[in-house]
Amino acid sequence: MAKGHIIAGLDIGTNTIKLLVIQKRNKEWEVLSYQEMPSFGLRKGAVVNIEEVSKNIQILLSEVERNSSKKITSVFVNIGGNHLYITPSDGIISVSRANQIISQEDIDRVLQATRAINIPQNEEVLDVFSREFIIDDQKGIKQPLGLRGIRLEAKVLLLCVFSPYFINLTQAVLNSKLHIDDIVPSPLAASEAVLTPQQKELGVALIDIGASTTSLAVFEEGNLLHLAVFPIGSANITNDIAIGLKTEITVAESIKKQYGSCMLVKTDKEKKDDKTNVEKKKIEVTENSCIVSFTKKDLVNIIEPRVSEILDLISKELKKIGRQELLPCGIVITGGGAKISKIKELAKEQLKLPVQIGKVKNILGLDEDPALATVAGLVLSSIDMEDGEKEGMMGGVKMILNKLKKILKAFVP
Q: What is the pLDDT of residues 17-65, one digit of tens each?
């Protein structure tokens, strides 16, 4: 990418749509413009109303172009929702060259062979993540290029999507007069923004708590080990507060952001005052002519069970892949739900692993807000692609062509 090149990331979420544009200046990437707006036309992270989503994207695009004085023609887009899933697969081929040296063509062929699996007709393979290569029964090989062998085998994870939702997403963006540079699963985009290469090498789990879904992505030895998406998120907590305190959704959301906590903990001032009873001290909130009265204990009793439910799903998933309490770099929580007070402490207690809140890095002028992880990761993944092109231009070109084929495939009868 040339100096001064603009990169745009479009995070289409259930509650908000975010558009981030960055530009390289003095060898560093900085924010050129950022805008967000309420989202409509999605359910559980999936686009269900193309026209509504496209209209919102166009409004957001106009705002960004006006603020940045730049024309945005293409974007990196996320795909989310609990219709995403991974499944293991493998493929095997004979090395084509007479000298038995494995070429890039051999690697491409064996990875293509892994796609030959039976999946439902309305689903498709979005991407392939290699776990290991095996050359003539020699296991554990990460990069077979240039090695010698007769038989090449690949063990991979296939990322699959529900085709109608994938088509809806691409159509909504294309209808907004934007080209699509790439489509990246939300948890993988978020991982680009908050995880380090060292964490991915040693073993780490990313928990991305969005509005209507919670995603889990586990990395080990630098590769994706597991991915799962659950149909529950921070909006469920807001709904619980609205029901428990008998108030409106907007008021419940405000209460969650201002007073919400996963655990009942006294402040330093309250600890000094022995007469202060945190559990019984009333809090009154007035909003939209609505008065809501509650105690900290009332709120914790509503929020804690729902967050514990999410963490229990994570724990079961880690146990299923044999990584419960066995991740050296522990857990990194991101997404809007990561901002709930004391979620770090509750997760540490329940998952028995070190826990930290993921902070966005490497973009000047952008807040470290964990809610921005996905949109930041979309543009950062583009920077990684640029670096890959510098290392090998042909490999970069092939990668771009493959991504283009993947996007166009959605519109082929």
A: 999 999 988 878 999 999 999 999 999 999 999 999 999 999 999 999 9
Distance between CA atoms of residues 409 and 412, nearest Å:
5
> What is the structure's pLDDT at 4?
52
Q: Write out pLDDT tens, residues 167-176.
A: 999 999 999 9
Q: Which of 410, 399, 411 is nearest to 181 (CA)?
A: 399
**What is the rounded average pLDDT for all residues in the chain?**
89
Question: What total number of domains does the chain contain?
Answer: 2
pLDDT above 90: residue 280: no
Rounded CA separation 88/264 (Å): 42
Relative orientation angle of helices 249-259 and 234-244, to the nearest 10 degrees: 110
Within-domain flag for 138: yes
Which spans in 75-213 are helix H? 104-113, 163-174, 186-194, 197-202
CA nearest 110: which of 126, 131, 124, 86?
A: 131
Domain range for 106: 85-163
* CA 358 – CA 377 distance, rounded (Å): 12
Question: Do 74 and 92 share a domain, yes or no?
Answer: no
Q: Is 120 a member of any domain?
A: yes
Predicted TM-score of the model (pTM): 0.87
Question: In what order do the strands lie in the sheet containing 331-334?
Answer: 223-230, 214-220, 204-209, 331-334, 355-357
Does residue 235 form part of some domain? Answer: no
